[in-house]
Structures are given as C-alpha cells and as structure tokens.
Amino acid sequence: MKTLFDKVWDAHAVHEAPHHPSVLYVDLHLVHEVPSPQAFSGLEARGLPVRRPERTLATMDHSTPTRPGGLAVVDDAGRAQLETLARRCAEHGIELFDLSSPHNGIVHVVAPEQGRTHPGMTVVCGDSHTATHGAFGALAFVIGTSEVEQVLATQCLLTWRPLPYEVRFEGTAPEGVSAKDLILALIAEIGVGGGAGHGVVYRGDAVRALSMEGRMTLCNMSIEAGARAGMVAPDDTTFAYLAGRPGAPADFDAAVARWRTLRTDDGAYFARTVSLDASRVSPRITWGTTPA
To answer: Is the pLDDT of residue 292 over 60?
Structure first.
C-alpha cells in the first residue's frame, strides 16, 4: 500500500541507500534565465553536454520586461541573462520559448498550457513555485543552481526523500472561497513551517471540486507552508484539461489508463495527517507579512 507521493518517487528512484540522499530520475526539467547561466558555465568548464535536451524546456520569464519593446527595455543584467539563455539553448538543442514566441510566459504556466506536464512525472525547476505541477499528479519541486547543473548533466538529481503528508479538505467550500483561501486556511492551521521535510498529498471532496487552475494554486502555495512539494491525484478533471494539448501523449487513452492508477492506496502510511472542514473556510486576505 502506497501513497501517491511514494508511487511516483519509487518509480523514479535510480538508487537509494539508508542515511544517504536518493538518486532521482527527472522526467521534465524546466529552465529559465536566472539560475541557468551559472549552470551552463559549469557544464562548459567540465566539457559536458546536456544529457537529455528533449526532456528540457526553457522559457524567458523572470528578467523579462512588462511593457512592449523586448530586449530594448531590459536592464543590462537582465539582458545578459536572456541572451545567455538563448545562446546556451541553441548550443545544446534545447527548446526555448523566447520573447518572440507565442508560447512565452511564466515557466509554471507554459508547461501545463502546452500539455507538457503529465501525471506521474518528476518535474524540477530552479524556481520556488515548481510545486505548481503537482496539480497534475506529478512530483514537482524547486532545485538550486548547482542542482540545475546536475540535472542538465545527468538527468538525475541527488536529493533527500521527503515524508508523505496527507492534507484533507472535507466538505464543500462556500461560494466565494477559492483555492488560495483553502491553502491559507491550512497555513494558519499548521504554520509557515508546518510542511517542512514533507511532500503533501491533497485529498477530499473540496480538492476534487477544484478546477485545474485551482489545484495549481493549491499545490503552488505548498511551499508557503514549508513543504517540498504538493500533489493532487489525477482524475477526469485532469484528463479533460490535458486532452488535445500539443504535448499530450499520442495514445491518450492508454496514457489515461496508466494515470488512473496514480492514487493513494487505502491504508497507505502518511507521516502526518491533517483534516480541515472546507465548509468553515471563509475568504481571506494576506498582507504578505508573517510572524515567523
């Protein structure tokens, strides 16, 4: 009996040993312009190619201008980052959504939009909100610059295994209560460090009732509770979202049959469990401050 988290982790564990970090295979590596220049320089210094460029997707999204003009209105540091990313992607054969691409956008939006994030995947990115992709039943989390280099070079990551954490939102959320209200209610309950060292699996009727966008918000903000990742088991809502998108599997029906197995088994072990009554959650405002 396994949790959703454990099923995806175990399917990607290349090597595990007691008291040592695991070697985890990465299905999709998302890259943007901020941590990647140093990582690519590290590869160049070692004379290493990108191990799996076809499993790497890059977009310009952090140092990009918010008004028309493209690179002409970017400051010198931002321009250097963007130009370096474009050059390195061309050198290594990595697909890039640059400023001229109609697919350019926020790194954790473009992959779902293009159907590149699938249930059961491992997804990493040098960005704190990589947990967003957990909405699809993927195991997704942030990595640092040295780890970006590690994944580019090997398509694997040396990392410690988090503990599974069950969060249940039971009941029906009132009208006007969004996914952000649910996750803020959880953080109020467990604290900004309450999820530290854990991978959260979100369950319950209120989670199932969320749209894919709502689930992405829920998983995205898992890190605001200190968790490494957040996940929702895929279901018909997930499959309907992915159907027909450019990156969806060619044999979609066969993929859906596999994806339906990605659920937590009855009686599976969770290191921690918390349950909240969604019907008692009200709309919330956060001022961006914390007593932590």
So the answer is: no
